[in-house]
Amino acid sequence: MAPSTPLSPMIGPNAVSSTTGAPIRSPKTAELVAGTLRRMVVDGQLKDGDFLPNEAELMAHFGVSRPTLREAVRVLESERLVEVRRGSRTGARVRVPGPEIVARPAGLLLELSGATIADVMTARSGIEPMAVRLLTESGNTAAFDELETMLTEYVPSGRETGRMAETTGDFHRRMVELSGNATLTIIAGMLHEITVRHTAFAMKENRPMSKSDYDLLMRSYKRLMTLMRSGDGEGAEAHWRKHLDTARDLLLKGMETVKVRDVMG
Questions:
Q1: Tens digit of pLDDT for each residue in 38-48?
Q2: How many CB atoms sit inside 10 A of residue 97's CB?
Q3: Domain limits of the chain?
Q4: Cα separation of 57 and 1, whole Å?
Q5: What is 27-94's CATH topology?
Q6: Which residues of 215-241 are buried (b: 16+ CB within 10 A; e: fewer)?
Q7: pLDDT band of 25, cuts 50, 70, 90
């Protein structure tokens, strides 16, 4: 078991009031306990893989009963911040989530709103070019090397296995992650599954990737890497925007009004 982490000071349940002085609902004790533990994760006092202190220690620190403590842990579990193995003696373990925690609800909201795949592809064109510019201007050689490896080894494997939508999608997402912008990374992660499914759907139903299409794609990727390694942020951004616009036009041809829900299944 990981060593116990020092606990933050206890927060009292009666200190909550609105700025106008009007009474508001006081949080339940379990919510306050969950909030304190949540803040410890956010602040890095509890890291991914750490175990929460044992129940006895937590109950004594917060001055709460076992049912209240367990309710607090269930709150964190519902937020995907902790993982609880039933029957285990090790207790709750911190699991810091990635973009996938919001991807599923976001996808559902897009389906319910009647959003089209064109909506999603347009949003993607607004996200990735900026990430490309940030990455280029960072001059991060290790990041460039990683992307080059994906282009020489991972992406081509998709053509051999019929998984080009997945391998190219992973390249796009990783490129945004390497930009270092957390907000762009989360948004790209939210859209990842939808864009990958759409690309696979389009390749199957509308436009299978020919050898000439593949060669054109790889030339565009290599041109991007050349621009990034040269430090030309403006040029890399412009190239990637054009690349995404061209890909969108090709993949959406005849499918402009297809809904997200029709692709997600």
A1: 999 888 899 99
A2: 11
A3: 27-94, 99-252
A4: 15
A5: Arc Repressor Mutant, subunit A (1.10.10)
A6: eebeeebeebeebbbeebbebbbebbb
A7: low
Enter the CATH code of domain 99-252: 1.20.120.530
Say how far apart CA 219 and CA 215 lie, in whole Å: 6
155 alpha carbon, distance to own chain's centre: 21
Helical spans, DSSP H, in the chain: 29-42, 55-62, 66-78, 100-113, 117-138, 141-149, 155-161, 164-178, 182-205, 211-230, 233-252, 260-264
CB of 119 closer than 8 Å to CB of 77 = no
CA 173/CA 192 separation, integer angstroms: 7
pLDDT of residue 109: 87
pLDDT of residue 260: 85
Q: What is the DSSP letter of 97?
A: -
Q: What is the pLDDT of residues 84-127, one digit of tens each?
A: 887 666 679 998 877 777 777 888 888 889 999 889 899 999 99
Task: Give the mean pLDDT of 247-263.
Answer: 83
CB 5 within 8 A of CB 58: no
